[in-house]
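BUG: 3D viewer hangs when loading the predicted structure for this chain

Environment: internal workstation, default settings.
Expected: structure renders.
Actual: progress bar stalls at 90%.

Input used:
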Amino acid sequence: MIDDIETFLVHAITLERDAARRYEDLAQVMRTAGNDEVRKLFERMAHFSRLHLNEAMERGGFRELPVLAPADFQWPGGDSPEAASWQGIDGLIDVPAALEIALDGERAGTAFYEGVADAARDPEVVRMAREFASEEAGHVCELQRWIAHIAAA
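Structure tokens produced before the viewer hung:
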């Protein structure tokens, strides 16, 4: 159980860093495929992840990220939720598959933050985890709109 704010923020920073990197990967694939519309979406999502990462760094007052040993991370399944969902990104991925991979990552991030909020006893951890879960849920909704838009096209 993650029940102190520093440990929570280290997890959030790591998760958001993974998300930004993966969105940058997806944007590059869309650039190569010539799909500027979806490339811009993924670039915007990478930007949001970096904003969340910076917000977590500021909230923790970190100049440098505290170091956790890999065994000290409390990820469901052993990997950061954003990193775990990004297997299968390659240069041949199509737009619907790229959007589904992104959606899986955002859903996993939302579930992670909700799980922390549900299990934590520290009110600050609970509050912040719910706030981060809400932000991730907004990303889920945006990606669902994009998937519907692409399917309708």
